[in-house]
Amino acid sequence: MEYKNVRLSSTICINNLYTIHYFEYMNTFSFIGERHDFWEFCYADKGEVGITAENNYMILKKGEIVFHQPNEYHNVTATGLSAPNLVVISFECKSPAMNFFRGKVLHIDEVERSLLANIAVEAKNCFLERLDDPYQTEMLKNPERPFGSEQLIKLYLEQFLLHLARRYQFGTAMDGQIPKVTKSRNEKEIFQHVVDYLDKNLSAHLTIEQICRDTLTGRSQLQRIFRERSGLGIMEYFFRLKVEAAKEMIRMSQLNFTQISERLGYSSIHYFSRQFKKTTGMTPSEYASSIKALSNGSFK
Questions:
Q1: Vertex 254, ends 248 and 256: CA angle to 5°?
Q2: Of 31, 160, 198, 200, which shows the fewest CB atoms inside 10 Å?
Q3: Considering Cα of 262, then 267, then 268, then 272, what sign does the dihedral take?
Q4: CA 263 from chain center: how many Å?
Q5: Which one, of 242, 225, 226, 231, lies nearest residue 278 by Cα?
Q6: Quick one: pLDDT at residue 174?
Q7: What is the DSSP letter of 178?
Q8: Helix (H) or strand (E) holding 69
């Protein structure tokens, strides 16, 4: 038998990467405008932020992503109403398919958000620089970067763009998976229902028993779903939600640490500080100093 090969073409091909950033902004942060000859997108993971693209101003809300085409002037400014978390990635791509993204503000789905998270994880190990420095202009490779990390970043980014474009242009996903069965959909709904419940009760002293009772979910099922979908136990997930809320309150600069501790239902400021450091690697005061340095442009 004589075989003939099939040459595979690339619809979107990332040629070069410039920056990968994950920022936690204060509610007063403002980044000076710029323009450059490569693509950039900004995704609002939490909160909202003001975006200028050439002469157009918009509010980018949680879950939305805006694309800046090459040589387009753009800047970003916190609105003062929230302390936003942003993902900003800039890259070179000459593929004609990128024309779809010109001037677009889109809303990403769960699959696309997961791909962005994968990019951030790989970038953290692939490059020497921290991802939260908005003034970083060069990403130096880590000599001890994991095997294949650069290629995975490229593949994840290309898949992210392909998935987003296909979903908006043709209304189809590209998970590469069979349609989810009813059980999977139900577990996704349970997970989101419990997460919403936890978000609404960040100031409470919840127990697993109370969570199960209030959400009508069995304990073993609840633990399994959270392990599978977040990699964390239900209580560890709850404590991390509290810390994320505390970080946002610190960036808003309206409450002191004692007030934040009380607002989130901690029994003492000392317990709050210990849990904060366990999760972030910094004390609340160290985190506040770091964020202030970022906002003042004195990040080191």
A1: 90
A2: 200
A3: negative
A4: 25
A5: 242
A6: 52
A7: P
A8: none
